[in-house]
Amino acid sequence: MKRKIVLFGFYRDYHRLEIEGIREYYDITTINIPSWFMITFSKLRFLFPGIYHLLFILLLRYKLGNKVKDVDLLITMNHPFYIELIKKSKYTKILIMRDTVTNVIFKYFKYFKVYTFDVDDSIKYDISLYEQYASGFDFVKDSNLSILHDVSFIGLNKGREKIINKIVSCLRLCNLRCNIMLIEGTSRLSYKEYLNQMLSSNIILDIVKKDQTGPTMRLIEALVAKRKVITNNVNIKESELFLFGNIYVVEDVSLIDRASILEFCNKDFNDISDGFLNRYSPTFVLDKIISENLK
Known about the structure:
By secondary structure, this protein is of the alpha/beta class. It is built from 13 helices and eleven strands. The chain folds into two domains: 4-130, Rossmann fold; 137-279, Glycogen Phosphorylase B (Rossmann fold, 3-Layer(aba) Sandwich). The protein has helices spanning 13-22, 35-47, 49-64, 80-86, 103-106, 119-124, 137-142, 161-173, 191-198, 217-224, 258-266, 274-277, 282-293; strands at residues 4-8, 27-31, 73-77, 93-96, 113-116, 128-129, 149-156, 178-183, 201-206, 228-231, 247-249. The strands form two sheets. A six-stranded parallel sheet has the order 2-1-3-4-5-6, sandwiched between helices. Strands 8-7-9-10-11 form a five-stranded parallel sheet, sandwiched between helices. The radius of gyration is 21 Å and the shape is globular. The model has no long low-confidence stretch (mean pLDDT 89).
């Protein structure tokens, strides 16, 4: 009989791709709450603090019903609403960080077994480290998209525009065709639209925020699709992924060596074995996390 796992907050299109791989091994139930409801309900904390927790308990009983009964594991990601929803459950609870740790999330760590992809966070907070994975691993691996550009960046701005513009200016001076799509506000591409846009280039631009030391999902997606990467994540040099020669690190955007970056762009992709890359599939990573926590 398959062990019963309940996933909370796996609601985006790329989450569905992550879940499909582990359904073969586990009895998976997903629980998601509409965003409009979460926003409305959260406002009650400030408007009616006296009855907020009572309403929260009633919501818990109504929403979960018999879905969370005699289960083996509860798993959620770094969304405060879902964390709050299950933090005091009697079942074993796992929190998978898909972003770097913030004070808002840290206060909940005492209720969960916590996993992070970020090396510095794992050391700072004494939490378990997992390999970053690409949600669309199988889709990317099987893709055969035409190359239309030399370099692409597709993603939310998140304050990255200045750095991206400096790197792209250098790349364009090298006569490289750049496809840059900075997404603002609530505008969204579907996950597969994003992948199709991004992977239409030979090289992917990967820009991390200041406090991130772990690899991004974008970098894993690129390598699985046999695309080279230009990144500002200097910590990637400590990763086995760097050893294959498919990653160029920009340590200082004001001191980019145009000759060396052009040489990198003109090189062929160095193949990485399937056996090695499979360590970065969601099926492998999530199965490993689950297996470690089953009694």
